[in-house]
Sequence to fold (401 residues):
Amino acid sequence: MSGWKQEWDRERFSDREKQDLAARLRQAAEQEESMDNKSKKRIFRLGRGAAVAVAAALMLTVGAMAAAANGTWGGLFRFFSPEEETLLEKITCEVGQTRQADDWEVTLSRCAGDDEMVYIWVDMKAPADFTGEPPADYLDLSTYWDLMIDGVQQAGGGGMISVDWDEESRTVTYCSGWPTGDPVAGRTADIILEPLCWSGWDREAEKWVDIPLWEGDVTFEDVELAYENQTIRLEPNVEVPYLDGTATLTRLDISPFRAVARVEGGSCYRHHWVKAEEGYQPEQGETVESEAGTITVGGSNIGKTELDGYRPSYGTLDCWGALTVEFHMKDGTVIEPRTAVLSECEDGFETADRTYAGECYVERRMEYETTPIYDMPDRIIDPAQVDYVTVCGVDIPVAEG
Fold:
């Protein structure tokens, strides 16, 4: 299926989606009472796009974020070993660019990242009339940002965020992370920050409210993303069991924030097509059995195109989940990652003209650990501490150095 991929583009949301997001915020706030300060982080995911595409929109109330911005980037990260804490220091680079935005003094303090993620840390010194108290109880502080290289957007939006207000220093600290489509370590970038806003869903007015705290974007030019590249890249080129056959494992990248595994050929071909019984087509709302379990057929789940006894089945196969990966650490622990956004696949078959497109692969991007409540991808690992990786039951050694 040509162009079959998991997108995470920067998107604006409809009023209906914003209302849904606000409802999730309220639900999270109710859960928050039983959490400690280090756990008070929020992440919300809304479905978008063709396959299992995911777009993330995240907001965090200042009052709920009790953890001060520190070495864990406002509580965005947890450490499972001293090596991980040291690693975060290595992949953090100081920036220190300051811009004036009306009466606000906005400083891009530092960046961190690897081949898969980039994080920014922004300190915003508030004017005398800012109190940190929202003008309405449904409003939270939020903003958006873009990372541009040679005029091309590499990352941006809201991302995973932490917002903290320190009344003594009169500073709002904003930490945010976002996946990148291409490696950006060592590159020079422009980072564009939109106005900090009080944002939220006004239930009485039934509309989304954005109250900017200054006018115009803030641009940090020629930012050197000078953090050390810690990524280990392997090209195993070995056959692994996949779906009902085998495929070739051609890529295995291990970065501090994320990992990538890719298989090509073999059973990747036409993996989103299923055999169609003669004259049978599931109806809207019908319950059917699939490799993903029991599903209810929706308008976008079952395609009506049929060829050679097969029909496309968009919602019945988790091709990324079928590409199983386990990271075996040198200390004996095993990390089972979860699928991340920007995963892709191509089943080598073009539905537009029903001709073979030639390329077929499944590429799974992964996050190592997530918080149990908010699903936050908040763990980094030291790639040098990975002993071997098991992909679809096949052990792939990780060479020293």
The chain is about 5% helix and 40% strand. The first strand starts at residue 45 and ends at 47. The radius of gyration is 23 Å. The chain has two domains: 15-224, 232-397.
